[in-house]
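wait is this the right file?? whatever heres the structure
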């Protein structure tokens, strides 16, 4: 059975989490969405995904949450060899410059998005981050072509199969 590539959404406000999942529903057929409301729950979700031999392709994480903050969690992911290449998006309305710089410098943050967002902004950012993850980690890209079908994906497909064009 091929491994699944998960999207993990870490957000403590239920209404915001529901809005994220609704906006990202276009990806659900190809990328299962796991939702959690704290960093502790996020760690448990990552462990479940790894135990199932699936992949964590993308984490969308809020900054301010009960317990540990989102930036520290993203740093943990980057320091763990199993999740170091997971694409990381900080989705927040409260991270100041210091926290954002820390995420960029120590978590290898891939994208920062402020709240509130528009559906188009969120979908566009997630599409780009998932595409980059898939190109870097998957050999069989054809199954993703309908979702990402653009020049960058076509070039990646040709580079993985140089004699096919």
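ok assuming it is, sequence goes like this
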């Amino acid at each position: 059975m091929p491994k699944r590539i998960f999207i993990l959404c870490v957000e403590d406000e239920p209404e915001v989490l529901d809005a994220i999942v609704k906006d990202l529903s276009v990806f659900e057929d190809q990328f299962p969405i796991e939702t959690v409301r704290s960093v502790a729950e996020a760690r448990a979700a990552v462990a479940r995904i790894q135990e199932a031999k699936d992949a964590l392709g993308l984490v969308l994480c809020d900054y301010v949450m009960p317990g540990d903050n989102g930036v520290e969690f993203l740093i943990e992911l980057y320091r763990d060899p199993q999740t170091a290449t997971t694409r990381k998006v900080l989705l927040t309305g409260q991270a100041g410059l210091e926290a954002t710089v820390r995420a960029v410098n120590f978590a290898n943050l891939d994208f920062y998005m402020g709240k509130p967002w528009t559906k188009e902004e969120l979908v566009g950012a997630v599409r780009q981050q998932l595409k980059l993850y898939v190109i870097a980690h998957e050999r069989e890209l054809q199954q993703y072509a309908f979702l990402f079908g653009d020049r960058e994906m076509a070039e990646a497909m040709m580079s993985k199969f140089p004699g096919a064009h």
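The chain has a mean pLDDT of 87. so i think its the right one actually
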